[in-house]
Amino acid sequence: MSIPGGFLDVGGQHLEAVWHGPGPNEAPTLVFLHEGLGCVGMWRDFPPKLAAATGLGALVYSRRGYGRSEPGPLPRPLDYMQRHARDILPALLDTAGIKRVLLVGHSDGASISLVYAGMYADDRRLAGLVLEAPHVFCEELSVRSIAQARDAFETGDLRAGLAKYHGHNVDGAFWGWNRAWLDPAFMNWNIEQYLPTIQVPALVVQGLDDQYGTPAQVKAIVHGSGGPVEVAMLKDCAHTPHREQEVKTLAAMTDFVTRIVG
């Protein structure tokens, strides 16, 4: 399946999108939701690899204000992840004609996936969740690391590195994420209330050296989710398992997905 022009118009937003593998009429679809500084390009070749390994289709998209998607307004509301799960993700699935879906979310994208699964527990097309470095509440560790990212963006080479992927969106992408998480009120951000109504199985992949979240995030999901949760904790791995431990991450996700859709 192809997406004409590489964009989808969803809920009044012009979003960058790319499809890999079979279309939604041929197989279930993996929908990739990127991290707080991510986009289509920053997934690199992981989505087509997971699609090929599982035989499923894959839809990868950039949220508003990221990658080649249209810019988004600033400042970003502190409940921006809940809003995206409520308003945009359902419209995206409808627009793409997806009939059965597994959400593959990284960091912010994993949190959005959890909110969607809890908020739309009656959506029978949702088969499962693949959660990479998810957050369900804000930790002091997250705040410290995000403050360090601000310094790297202002005085280091982070801005130049992100500009390769976000182009005209680079400042909005960074500051929208950074200022939201560093807002003192964000320490109260918590999405654990969505966990009990989740009905589908989930896989959590977390690096033991994750600089943005502790294993307390994983424990909260395991104990709070209404569906079964499997966990893969990876050594020598920080916040991006699909890059830092690609082989192990791909194997864990492939095994989980094939069992869920088999």
Structure description:
Strands 1-2-4-3-5-6-7-8 form an 8-stranded mixed β-sheet, sandwiched between helices. The protein has one domain: Alpha/Beta hydrolase fold, catalytic domain (Rossmann fold, 3-Layer(aba) Sandwich), CATH 3.40.50. With 262 residues, the protein is an alpha/beta fold. It has 9 helices and 8 strands. The chain has helices at 46-54, 80-95, 108-119, 140-155, 158-166, 170-182, 215-224, 241-244, 246-261, and strands at residues 7-10, 13-20, 29-33, 57-61, 101-106, 126-132, 202-207, 229-234. It is 40% helix and 18% strand. The longest helix is centred in the middle third of the chain and has 16 residues, at 80-95. The chain starts with 6 loop residues before the first strand and ends with a helix. Strand 7, helix 7 and strand 8 (229-234) form a beta-alpha-beta unit. Helix 2 crosses helix 3 (108-119), helix 4 (140-155) runs antiparallel to helix 6 (170-182) and helix 5 crosses helix 6.
User: What is the number of strand segments?
Assistant: 8
Radius of gyration: 17 Å
* Mean pLDDT across every amino acid position: 97
Shape: globular
- Count structural domains: 1
Helices and strands, in order, run as EEEHEHEHEHHHEHEHH
Q: Determine the fraction of residues in helical runs and give it as a percent range.
A: 40-55%
How is the biggest beta sheet arranged?
A: 8 strands, mixed
Q: What would CATH call the architecture? A: 3-Layer(aba) Sandwich
For the largest beta sheet, what order do the strands appear in spatially? 1-2-4-3-5-6-7-8
Structural class computed from helices and strand pairing: alpha/beta
